[in-house]
Each structure stands twice: as C-alpha cells, then as structure tokens.
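=== RUN LOG ===
request id: a7f3
mode: sequence -> structure
chains: 1
length: 274
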Amino acid sequence: MKKVVYPIFAVIVFIIMQAMAGVALVAVGALRNIDKAKAIAASGDSDAMMRELASPDMLALAIVVSGILTIIVIALLKMIDWKQVLNVKTINWSWGAVSIVAAFAGIFALDIAEEMLDLPNLMEDTFTDMSNSVMGALGIGLLGPIIEEFIFREGIEGYMLRNGVNKWVAIVGSALAFGIIHLNPAQVPFAAAMGIILGVIYYKTGNIVITSILHILNNSIAVWQMYTLGDAAKDFSLVESIGGTTSAIILMIVGTVVCVTMLISFWKKYQQKM
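=== RESULT ===
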C-alpha cells in the first residue's frame, strides 16, 4: 500500500508547502505595505496580490525552501536512494548524449504545440519578473529543476520502481504529478509530457544526473529568453520565427519523430556502467 500512498502523499506535501510559502510571502508583503495590500484586496485580483506584495527574490526563495522541505519529508519516508541518486560513475555518456538530443527534439515539439494551443499562462508576469533577479533566475534555472528531479523522478518514480510498481505506471504517474503541481494551464499538459521523457531517461539511467542536466538547460534557456527580451518575451512567437503555421507543424512532427525514435533506441541499448 505504501508504494502508492507515499508518492501521492509526496505530491500533496509539495503542494501544501508551496501554498504555505505563498501565503507567508503575501503576509510579509502586506505587513510591509498595508495601504497597497488593502487596495489590492479590495480589487479581488489574487494575481496582483502575489505580484505586487512578493518580490521576485522572495518568491524564488519560497519556491526553493518549499522544495527542500518536501525533499526532507520524502527522505524521512525513505523514498530516496542516496547511493544512486547522483551516481555519475554509472552513467553511459554515449547513450546519455542520445537521450539528451532526443529530449530536446521532444521539448522543441512541445514548445510549438504549447504556443499553438495558446492556453492561459497565469504565471507569465511572475516568471518574467523572476528572470530579472539573480535569486529568481537561480530558482527557476538551477535550484528549482534539481529539487523537482529529486521529488518527482527520484522520490516518486524511483520509489515506485524500487517497490515493484509497473514501470509505465511509475513513469506516467510521476509525469502526471509533475504536470499537475505546476497549477498553470499553459504548463500542465506540456510539463506532464516532458515528465514522461525525463521519466524514461530516469528509468534507464537509475539516477537524476542526466534528467537534472536536461531540466536545468530547459529552464535556463527560458530564463535567458525572458531576461534578454524583457516584456517583449510575451509577444515572441516561436511559430512565426520558424516560418509560420505550416512550417511549425512540420517541424513539430519531425521533432516528435526524432524524439520517439531516439528514445526507443536509447531504451533498447542503454546499459548502465558497472
């Protein structure tokens, strides 16, 4: 029973920790600027409440702290294999490189699909603000990805695998949890899809070394784009930059095929170094 209950509990803990951190941030911000807090509260704009009362640095700190607290909880539940979680020596880097190329081909296809679906992005302003601060950039681009790999790949997927859960249940289950915790319509389905790619890589490598590298690179590229473009990042169109809708659809299909084909080869031929 624990092999299913503990992963669900880990997701709940993570969500609660993030919510508590958000409430604490708003409370501190409100105490610092009571007049502004009253005006925003009267407008009923919860997004403005977070954006105006919580600084990007404080928000990044809250994200990191809530993640670390969650890791402590799942570590106490013995959901992390500390001997293997960051064991670089077992990585077969030749096939690891194949998985990295496959992942980026898939992420490229997902980025196109995300833009074309145009789901509401509730965190766009917040992420843009955070990308312009050192702590915010570190939180999104470096610390956040590592924390999430510890929780979702090692803590949830790894725990289920080590306790006899079917590999695809573990991979897809952790990916769905990874998507859900983003709580942002523009991110949820694509984070879940990315979670499947990372989950496959984790299953074969047995640790979060390559998945962390991929996660860091993916987030850091987004941070760099938001930092360099500023407010113009909101109007940037990947579809237009690659030649319009027809070209985008073709490239999305190509990216998907490349990703799936290379991941299948990786799945069949990857062997851990002993």
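=== NOTES ===
The chain has twelve helices and no strands.
The first helix runs from residue 2 to 32.
=== END ===
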